[in-house]
Amino acid sequence: VTAPDDVVDVDTMRRLLDGVDYLADLGLATALFCALRLPQPLLLEGEAGVGKTEAAKALAAVLDTPLVRLQCYEGIDAAEALYEWNYPRQLLGIRLAEATGREVTEHDLFGPDYLVERPLLRAIRHPGPRPVVLLVDEVDRADDEFEAFLLEMLAESAVTIPELGTVRAATPPVVVLTSNRTRDLHDALKRRCLYHWIDYPDLGRAVAVIRRRVPAASTTIAEQVAAAVARLRSLDVQKPPGLAEAINWVATLDLLGLERLDDDAVGSTLGSVLKYREDLELARERGSAWVAGGA
Amino acid sequence: VTDLAVVVAAFGQLLHDAGVPVTPERSGRFATTVALARPSSLDELYWAGRVTLLSGAAQIEAYDRVFAQVFRGVADVAEWRGQTPSVLATPRRTSPARHDERSRTPPPADGRAPAPHVTTTTGPPGGPEAGPEGDGAGLLAAASPDERLGHTDLARLTPEELVDLRRLMAALPWATPRRASRRTARHPRGRLLDLRATLRRARTTGGDPVRRSFRHRTDRRRHLVLIADVSGSMEPYARAYLHLLHGAVRAARADAFVFATRLTRLTRALATSSPDLALRRATVAAPDWSGGTRIGDALKAFVDGHGRRGMARGAVVVIVSDGWETGDPAVVGEQMARLARLAHRIVWVNPRSAGAGYRPLVGGMAAALPHVDAFVSGHSFAALDEVVAAIAGVER
User: Fold this and answer.
1) Contacts of A281 by beta carbon, 8 Å cutoff, 6+ apart
2) CB contact B147 to A (< 8 Å)
């Protein structure tokens, strides 16, 4: 069990992440170290499939605390992100009280029993001693109003519920936000956050990550797939495959019992890496042999 | 330890000068991180700074440059950490060298070098400034600017007329079509039961929900994206359309891009109330003014980097260009097809199409047309009505 203060330096962070099967490079390890020790919310950006969400999961695993995930979408509001009252239960409570001749007060109805915790409140009410990791996923999908609301919560590590009063976090959560950059986030939000851009891993690290995630796969096939994915990225594809696609590909090959990545294997499994028809055509034009590493 | 504060502050200042908006707050975080993590290599120091001082991917290049100058070349980090310099003698990263290579080929993204050149060719920062253009001035004109400017070709405006024009453009009624939002609002005849409100009202009627409250789905305006061609062939119109972009960004929270040989996002640069400042920032941000036109590449860059991620989904996309493509027109067609699949509406504004006997025969234009929902000229202020109507989706 690791307390935040036990993570004395970036190297320790890296080692601990390694221990939970997440291979972080120096940059990401530094970012997570700062998020944990400063502490400060961390904004992670990067192409899809480079492991933004995985990073937050790994951090939670290191601390051995729950990961509280808030998936953002357009129109998300306080009732979905913070809390909601359990209305059916409140009505039942009133009826039950009437039937049994018991007195119910507003205090009873708007008490913790009838409160439905949504992710933000759950993260704030976590008793500790170690902080939860709060992952606010794809924050760019929510609208500006929600961003402002989130900002307030991040700044205070507290939320106010009219019926209950202010709930302050005993141990403030470690906050990781991810964005796909569909729109510019508000400056005020960015100002509060640390920032890290996750790049595609280099070949060596990609192989190491694949080996870690699909232990059944041989080194040969991990190396072949990592190299093939790098080659596909060099093509002018619409959606360049990332690490997640490479892992999927290896898992697919492993499932099919294929020992190595050759022309035929590429031909039959390319759909697990490239998800656009145009991209598939482009790769086929260039030749399965080229993708496999032959010519 | 006071030395650390000095070094951090000085480093922050250099970054600030290089265009990275480093706040004292961020510098403080950097200092705290250094004190906490005690970086023992240049790499570790590099990442500690990069994670704490930056707020976006666009700043990485400038950061790399300044970091290389300060820590890998001139200054020696070991001195203020009280270690022997030998520990740090061999940096593993080869960033400075790689950076030099890169910066030699394309013009620097944020460099000040191209600015004077741009100023002379396109004029926006210099021209209008000369005139008496304090807010509220220029009301003395006998004929209203509306009438005078109405049908003048935007390419032939004098600097004084441009000043009038931007006042008019600021008042254009930008309105994209509405679409259903995921948000709900209280509404007397809504169809969704509002439990929270109903129950609150029930408290006044002894717990019986006698009067029910309802909500309904709200709607909101579709996002507006403007992409303007500022290449050589469009140069006469570039100033006027920059005012248009500025107005749209301010009034309709639109996203704005310009392109000649490459695509530059101007939303940030234009998001200021001062038109002069906006135009000055825009010219610095986009270094390829009056260059050749690569519409296909610019559209591809837009769809790949922004549109597909969500900016163009269900949006109204306005492209201002004469369709004069120096690359392969087939690429324009391909990329327009991709864009058309994402966008709600594509409006193509071509000021040259107002000329008598205009036929869209230019390769790029012909390739783009099948994917365009509305094709308008927008060559004068009066003709901008058409543009506004096309954006709103109103058939004229």
Assistant:
1) none
2) no
